[in-house]
């Protein structure tokens, strides 16, 4: 369902356990960036009505989640602050083809893969975190990431036929798995 | 209350009456751009909690208005499409000082002046348009523009003291009035 080519291993869970505060701060930034991505896609393909409506819902939901994470940080007295992002997003971004309509397909599929990876990792967090409140928190966010993934893959089919979209998704998912496998020394949601 | 230095005259109302469809399409783009502006301000000043909350509300409201205008276009069988924007936004943008915190003050005040001008013009539309449905539509949007204006001016005071903000608002409002007076041959919401 999530089209991922790998599972996150214990290396990442160890990073999270040792630096939970940093991962929570990074999570807030990820929600904010996800809202920005959806709004940029709406700007780029504003004549696609279904895309506009879906992006609007996603912007609203991501901003709602952003505030949920901010509230959680506040409650735990963790100061929200700027953080060097993991290299995950920029490496994925480099894979986007420059010519339309391929560019649209890639932007949507990459947005969808980021949602899929978040979903997979929220699934691990809701199982393995020692802190019950955090387990419940990630459980509450799990479903929307899966839903967003499906929306992005569906919208990619506005710009290319189904077989082309699915084969490109396969390629990008393989690249995404390589990026995840190489990791990031900074503890982040996608390190 | 709106801090504007001029009133829109009959030149603009004539443009609207002769090219209502174009102004409606431009209005949809303006709502979308206003959402983008608010999100960008949130990204730039993400450590300011009140600003983040206010920008989130504004993003949500502007996107809601965007869809209201899209619905109106659809109902009137006017095709939503890309449009060369008026030169209003880019001319205002050129006035933003580059050094922080002056940059933050200017970005917020200019966003506030754009809301103020929209409010003033929605006020004219709700009075003078021959089409009753459109008059009601602009009446329904009037109040939120005034509210957004007040939010932006208030937030600017997070980055400079009150007297500095108010004197800069005075300067920028004078420049805005000049831009409006010079007009734009393309019929737009801010021509």
**Gyration radius over CA of chain A:** 16 Å
Number of strands of chain A: 0
Q: How far is the first residue's CA from the last residue's CA of chain A? A: 22 Å
CATH superfamily of chain A: Ferritin, core subunit, four-helix bundle
Q: What structural class do helix, strand and pairing data of chain A support? A: mainly alpha
Oligomer: homodimer
Give the helix level of chain A as a range of percent. Answer: over 70%
Give the low-confidence spans of chain A.
none
- The whole-number mean of residue pLDDT values of chain A reads 96
CATH architect. name of chain A: Up-down Bundle
Can you describe this structure?
2 copies of one chain form a homodimer. Chain A has one domain: Ferritin, core subunit, four-helix bundle (Ferritin). With 191 residues, chain A is mainly α. Chain A is built from 7 helices and no strands. At the A-B interface, helix 2 and helix 3 of A face helix 2 and helix 3 of B.
């Amino acid at each position: 369902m999530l089209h991922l080519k790998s599972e996150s291993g214990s290396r990442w869970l160890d990073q999270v356990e040792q630096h939970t505060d940093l991962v929570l701060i990074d999570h807030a930034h990820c929600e904010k960036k996800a809202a920005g991505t959806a709004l940029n896609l709406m700007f780029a393909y504003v004549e696609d009505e279904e895309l506009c409506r879906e992006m609007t819902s996603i912007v609203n939901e991501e901003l709602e989640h952003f505030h949920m994470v901010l509230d959680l940080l506040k409650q735990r007295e963790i100061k929200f602050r700027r953080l060097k992002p993991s290299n995950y997003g920029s490496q994925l971004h480099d894979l986007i083809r420059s010519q339309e309509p391929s560019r649209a397909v890639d932007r949507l599929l990459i947005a969808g893969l980021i949602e899929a990876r978040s979903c997979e990792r929220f699934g691990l967090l809701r199982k393995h975190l020692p802190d019950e409140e955090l387990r419940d928190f990630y459980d509450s966010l799990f479903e929307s990431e899966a839903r967003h993934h499906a929306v992005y893959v569906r919208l990619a089919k506005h710009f290319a036929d189904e077989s082309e979209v699915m084969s490109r998704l396969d390629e990008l998912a393989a690249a995404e798995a390589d990026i995840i496998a190489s990791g990031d020394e900074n503890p982040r949601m996608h390190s």
